[in-house]
Amino acid sequence: MSHAVAVMVVFSGTEVGERLFRAALDRARATGARLVLLDVRHLRQAERLGDYLTSESVLGRGAVAAVRAAVKDQRDRAIRRALEELEREARRHGVEIERCQVKGTYADAVAAAARDHGASVVVVEAGPESARLSGPFEVVQV
Fold first, then answer.
1. Is residue 55 in a domain?
2. pTM of the entire structure?
3. CA separation for the pair 61, 27 (Å, rounded)
4. pLDDT tens digits along 107-134
């Protein structure tokens, strides 16, 4: 296995995948690389919920805006707590770690973040969006 400068693990959505993290942490430990936790937020994610609620609800725009804001706030707090715990775990294993967040379409946002953070390995959940991911880095689908 070649020496990786940085191993990036990508999280998108509300669930922070333990399997993804383990695969990335193992790779970082084996290569001496730093670990980058990337939180990808799809453009207009909260707005899409609001659009749905507006079209399916008699609550009115004010109530929809309040629901949209509450959902976004709860999601942000849950993800932040999960990522903070992963940071603590990586440090317990002696792995240098950083966390970042990007907004955009999945493949473009991940590729740009990988370049910006010098990732030579990107660990992603296997699926249609990650299959389109390419760049000057190895893509590991878990």
1. no
2. 0.78
3. 47
4. 999 999 999 999 999 999 988 888 889 9
